[in-house]
Design a protein that fits this description.
Layout: H1 2-7, H2 9-25, H3 30-38, H4 41-65, H5 69-80, H6 85-93, H7 98-124, H8 136-160, H9 162-189, H10 195-198, H11 200-223, H12 228-239, H13 243-253, H14 260-297
Helix pairs in contact: 2-8, 2-9, 2-13, 4-5, 4-7, 4-11, 4-12, 5-7, 5-13, 5-14, 6-7, 6-12, 6-14, 7-8, 7-12, 8-9, 11-12, 11-14, 13-14
């Protein structure tokens, strides 16, 4: 199992991501984007938080703690990717503005074609091995093919076959979660996720970064004067990152081979997986908190 996973790590990541974006696309229509023209402020501020404040907070976090190597690269990858479909689901259950969440996810996913390589270059160039070349063209191509194309196909399916689009979305997202499980199990079987090697300090760093994003997510919407429902959507959108895309970028930057670069890649992968588990925990806590709060207000 371990050897098979190492040989096909990239395709596991692609499988997981394509299904996730197809599932999200099957819930989106052009009207979801047009409606925001009438009230653009929440989505504009949400995009600003995602594309400006999150990378800035990450830069300050890396500089303040002097974090380097694979952990720094992993945190930078997290900052460079948008929210994923899970953020939309959490927003729905938390009774936030689901339409706003979906639109921010959709727009930042489109924007990441340009923003992801730029943010990565800004944050991690100095932490990369001396002979490393950022595969910008490949990352852009992969974002187009594994994010934008399945997203568009999902939207087209919803337009052509609205009666069965919900079913497609449900099973695509379930397949995506199964793909993510394969990545975790395959990495464990291959010995690529080694908690002892990663170290308690690095685990604390990743959790500290997650808490820093929680602070940005909670404070920014309120300081910007957004409503409670809009703030809830942006909070969850900031905290719940697109781990599938992050894993694919990692696989593109650090293929599953041997040598020093592979060791750095393993640290990056473990950083992404630790954060992925933490974001699900925080997302669940926020859903429970806001549901109780809405029930009390009602």
């Amino acid at each position: 199992m371990g050897a098979f996973y190492v040989a096909n790590e990239y395709w596991f990541a692609v499988f997981q991501l394509v299904l996730a974006m197809l599932g999200m696309g099957a819930t989106l229509t052009l009207k979801d984007f047009r409606d925001l023209v009438n009230e653009p402020r929440p989505v504009t501020l949400g995009i600003f938080v995602q594309l400006v404040l999150v990378p800035l907070a990450t830069l300050l976090f890396l500089r303040a703690l002097g974090i380097e190597g694979g952990v720094a690269i992993g945190l930078a990858v997290l900052a460079a990717v948008p929210g994923g479909t899970v953020s939309n689901i959490f927003t729905f259950f938390a009774r936030g503005n689901t339409a706003l969440s979906i639109c921010i996810t959709g727009i930042t996913t489109l924007a990441c074609l340009l923003t992801t390589p730029l943010i990565l270059a800004l944050l991690i160039t100095e932490y990369m091995p001396a002979d490393f070349q950022m595969p910008r063209a490949r990352i852009v191509t992969e974002i187009a093919l594994t994010l934008l194309l399945p997203l568009a196909l999902g939207m087209l399916y919803l337009y052509l076959y609205p009666a069965t689009a919900r079913t497609l979305s449900k099973w695509s997202i379930r397949g995506s979660l199964l793909g993510l499980l394969f990545i975790v199990v395959g990495s464990l079987a291959a010995g690529r996720i080694n908690p002892e090697q990663f170290g308690l300090y690095n685990m604390a760093v990743v959790h500290g970064y997650a808490l820093a994003l929680v602070a940005v997510a909670v404070l920014a919407p309120r300081l910007l004067g957004l409503s409670r429902r809009d703030s809830t959507a942006i909070e969850i959108e900031v905290i719940v990152r697109n781990i599938g895309l992050a894993v694919m970028i990692k696989a593109s930057m650090f293929p599953a081979t041997s040598g020093p670069a592979a060791q750095v890649g393993d640290m990056v992968l473990f950083t992404l997986i630790i954060y992925g588990g933490f974001q699900l925990l925080v997302g669940g806590i926020l859903v429970g908190y806001y549901r109780r709060r809405r029930a009390t207000d009602d």
